[in-house]
Amino acid sequence: xTAGDVTADGRARVLVDGNEIPLxxxxxxxxxxxxxxxxxxxxxxxAGYRHIDTAQAYGNEESVGRALRDSGVRRDDVFITxxxxxxxxxxxxxxxxxxxxxxxxxxxxxxxxxxxxxxxWAWDGMQRAHERGHARSxxxxxxxxxxxxxxxxxxxxxxxxxxxxxxxxEYRRGLLDACEERQVAVEAYSPLGTGRxxxxxxxxxxxxxxxxTPAQVLLRWCLQRNLVVLPKSTHQERIEENAQVFDFTLADxxxxxxxxxxxxAGSDQARERKWW
Length: 276
Ligand code: A2P
Known about the structure:
Blueprint: E1 12-14, E2 20-22, E3 26-27, H1 35-46, E4 51-53, H2 61-71, E5 79-84, H3 91-102, E6 107-112, H4 123-131, E7 135-141, H5 145-154, E8 161-165, H6 173-181, E9 185-189, H7 201-210, H8 214-224, E10 228-230, H9 236-243, H10 252-259
Parallel strand pairs: 3-4, 4-5, 5-6, 6-7, 7-8, 8-9, 9-10
Antiparallel strand pairs: 1-2
Helix pairs in contact: 1-2, 1-9, 2-3, 7-8
Adenosine-2'-5'-diphosphate (A2P) is lined by residues 27, 190-195, 198, 213, 215, 231-235, 238, 241-242.
């Protein structure tokens, strides 16, 4: 298996460093620390998710760790991502704090949350976190192609992923193609447009015709576009619904109809407007 290959069960992708990342992950952005977050993560693990995506900035790593321990699922069977909060100075020290909060010996993936202060300054620290075994893979988030190229020019260990906002409505072909060429896997956050895309008529028509839900159609589109996809929900039935995306396929015409919903003109940017 080489970088970019999908595993035989169709559920994971091989990263540039040889590690495997499950294609479906559970995102916990905007899920408050405490009971609600623990329930959501436990439901996700019960529903078969084996990939949880958190961040230092989310403030819910302790709940993610508690849910993982309470779930009965083996640590080694779950892929855990956290993100370096780039307003801090030292990715190694912050990784160690994350590991304490999560109650794990390492995370599977540690990524720079956004290129605050420029795309390269934190990478040395990310590489040290990797060398020390705090993270099995390292990567970035919210990087444009130009920012990725700046980083690749100086990196000893190249970033394995770039996590960006991605959906048919944010179909950043330029960014996706460039990442694929550079062997950087793209992870889609807000694949449902934080819920906004679920009411779209074109998405709804495809879902109705296939006997699926709008969420499943949007998530399936991401999988067929070679993305790792990270839906978020705090409702058990939705968490389960969003995991049922490996038992159907969107036909080429439906993929094309969804592609046409893009509002970024195929941007090579991670986002049209930066919030940082
Ligand atoms: P909730 O957390 O109340 O269940 P995204 O993954 O793009 O960030 O979207 C997350 C938003 O979409 C959340 O507000 C979530 O609501 C909602 N959501 C997630 N899955 C579904 C679903 N299957 N059906 C309807 N709404 C959903």
